[in-house]
Design brief:
It is an enzyme of class 2 (transferase). Its cofactor is Mg(2+). This protein has 207 residues and is of the alpha/beta class. The protein has one domain: TIM Barrel, CATH 3.20.20.70. The chain contains 10 helices and 8 strands. Helix 2 crosses helix 10. Ligand 3NM binds next to helix 9.
Length: 207
C-alpha cells in the first residue's frame, strides 16, 4: 500500500552534524529504527561540514533512509540533491526560488518554509508539495529563527490550504507535538528533541 505524502511527513527528523554530540549516522539509524517517517539533511550553520565531507556524510545518511524507506530531503543544496538522488529539497524564503526549482525538478518534492502572511502571499504555493510552518515555539537550534508564531499559524495555513501537507517546526517536543497536530498539521519536524534526547528510540516513539 502506498502511503500519502501527508502521512510520510508525520515524524520528520531534521539533522546536520552541527546538531549532534554523537555520530550523526548512529543517531539517524536509531531514529529510523524507532519510526521516523522522513528525514532532512540540513548541514548548515556554525560547525557544519562542507564539500567532500558534507557529501560523504550525506551518502551514509541517504543510504540509511533507503534501507528504512524513509523520505530523504536535502536542505537548500541542489548539487547535493543530484549527487545523492534525494527525494526532494526544502528551502526557506531567502533560499533558491521555488519557481526555478520546480522547473529543474518537475518530479521531486519541494518543501517551503512560511512564517507569516506576507511570505505566503509572495510564495508560489501552487508549486510546492508541502509547507513548513514555524517557528511554532521558541527554539535555540536555529540562530536566526523568527519570533515564535504559535499553533495559531497552523490553523491559519490549514484554513487557507486545506489540501497541502503542513509540518510544524521549531521548539516541538514530545510534550507539545500533539497540540501541533490538533491545530491541523500533518506532521512535526524536529531537530533537538531527537538529537538531544537521552533515549532516541523513546523520544521518537513518544512523538
Ligand atoms: N527552521 P528544534 S525553526 C530548522 O522556523 C528550523 O523555519 C525553523 O529545531 C523555522 O526542533 C528550526 O530543535 C529549528 O527547535 C528547529
Amino acid at each position: 500500500m502506498r502511503i500519502s505524502l501527508a502521512q510520510q511527513l508525520r515524524k520528520y527528523f531534521i539533522m546536520g552534524s552541527q546538531n549532534c554530540e554523537q555520530d550523526p549516522v548512529t543517531i539517524l539509524e536509531s531514529a529510523a529504527k524507532a519510526g521516523i517517517t522522513a528525514f532532512q539533511f540540513r548541514e548548515k550553520g556554525i560547525g557544519s561540514l562542507a564539500g567532500d565531507e558534507k557529501l560523504k556524510l550525506g551518502k551514509k545518511l541517504r543510504q540509511i533512509c533507503r534501507e528504512y524507506h524513509i523520505l530523504f530531503i536535502v536542505n537548500d543544496d541542489v548539487e547535493l540533491v543530484d549527487l545523492l538522488d534525494a527525494d526532494g529539497i526544502h528551502v526557506g524564503q531567502a533560499d533558491q526560488s521555488v519557481t526555478e526549482l520546480r522547473k529543474q525538478y518537475p518530479d521531486k518534492l519541494i518543501g517551503l518554509s512560511v512564517s507569516n502572511r506576507t511570505e505566503v502571499e509572495n510564495s508560489p504555493t501552487h508549486l510546492v508539495d508541502y509547507l513548513g510552518a514555524g517557528p511554532i515555539y521558541g527554539t535555540t537550534t536555529k540562530s536566526d529563527a523568527k519570533t515564535p508564531v504559535g499553533t495559531e499559524w497552523i490553523r491559519t495555513l490549514r484554513n487557507q490550504f486545506p489540501n497541502i501537507p503542513i509540518v510544524g517546526i521549531g521548539g516541538i517536543n514530545t510534550s507539545n507535538a500533539s497540540s501541533v497536530i490538533h491545530a491541523g498539521a500533518n506532521g512535526v519536524a524536529v531537530i533537538s528533541s531527537i538529537t538531544q534526547a537521552t533515549n532516541i528510540v523513546e523520544a521518537v516513539k513518544k512523538l
